[in-house]
UniProtKB/TrEMBL annotation:
This is Aldo/keto reductase family protein. Keywords: NADP, Oxidoreductase. InterPro entries: K_chnl_volt-dep_bsu_KCNAB-rel, NAD(P)_OxRdtase_dom_sf, NADP_OxRdtase_dom. The keyword NADP applies. Belongs to the shaker potassium channel beta subunit family. Residues 15-313 form the NADP-dependent oxidoreductase domain. CDD domains: Aldo_ket_red_shaker-like. It comes from Streptomonospora arabica.
Amino acid sequence: MEFRHLGNSGLVISEIAYGNWITHGSQIEEEGAAACVRAALDEGITTFDTADAYAQGRAEEVLGRALKGERRDGLEILSKVFWPTGPGKNDRGLSRKHIVRSCEDSLRRLGTDYLDLYQAHRFDYATPLEETLRAFDDLVRQGKVCYIGVSEWRAEEIERALTLADEMGLDRIVSNQPQYSMLHRVIEPEVVPASRRGGLGQIVFSPIAQGVLTGKYKPGQEAPAGSRATDETGGRFISRVLKDDVLERVQRLVPLAEEAGLTMAQLAVAWVLQNDNVSAAIIGASRPEQVGDNAAAAGVRLDESLMARIDEALGDAVQRDPALTVSPPQRP
Ligand SMILES: NC(=O)c1ccc[n+]([C@@H]2O[C@H](COP(=O)([O-])OP(=O)(O)OC[C@H]3O[C@@H](n4cnc5c(N)ncnc54)[C@H](OP(=O)(O)O)[C@@H]3O)[C@@H](O)[C@H]2O)c1
């Protein structure tokens, strides 16, 4: 495994992190989840990402049990707050009340007394940013959280948070967690430059586009049995990318991966890690073998001509519009 600093912060994380959205507490059974976490640890992965809302809290519980017995200070555990965790009007968003309550619940479910990174899962237009930043800062002072970050915030939202934190003397955000892959590059024009200026690193999610960049979904064919596309919850999310024109373009990567001596998944994970503003790629897995496959992308360098041929192969299947970085206009 290779390690990188989380933005300009002093925290070092594994450049491949393991995340449990869709899988733990939902798509896969506890035993399979534990096997994937074991495989991640065996690959040298030390960074684990989850969220309060994944599988209504079950994902944090499963991860907490799977990591039990590991040396806590050798791990970096990341969680998030924003999406609904219950039916109540205050069980969502980035109000002081919800941030404080949800952090306590995450710590209990994960079986730990601190989070390495606590992330605002989206921007909350219904809460003053001052209130959110102050609540996060309090958690840092209390030792419940080491660092704070955000997820899918727009460039101007990141910049406002940094300016406000400096004016108020509060802890600064150190990271952003956006979707980023060969197919989804919307952070490149605005979010990445703003993050570089502000000292934030990207912890990117869905680096293999939820499985699409493995090439296992073929144009005009049924999705393979047991894949995310066939899962009730996962299927809803992946369907946005499962378009025949995209799948046809992805198949053009197969000879490029072969030539580079990489699997398709390794090529996709290695591709996001070529961006030096990326602190880590968070991989998901439904089976331990996938963790072993994808983690082998650590430290891989792709040369310029290969990068150019990837662009040529994917053509207009690549999303580049920065306007695609959005948070819900109203609290969900
Ligand atoms: N901040 C946010 O809003 C946000 C949003 C989404 C995700 N995330 C984070 O990012 C993490 C990763 O997201 P993701 O799961 O979408 O990432 P991903 O790595 O792009 O996709 C993972 C899925 O692809 C399939 N797969 C993985 N490796 C494979 C291989 N070698 N061969 C064939 N299939 C393979 C598996 O699904 P099947 O086997 O079921 O097909 C696996 O669950 C999440 O767990 C979460 O921590 C954050």
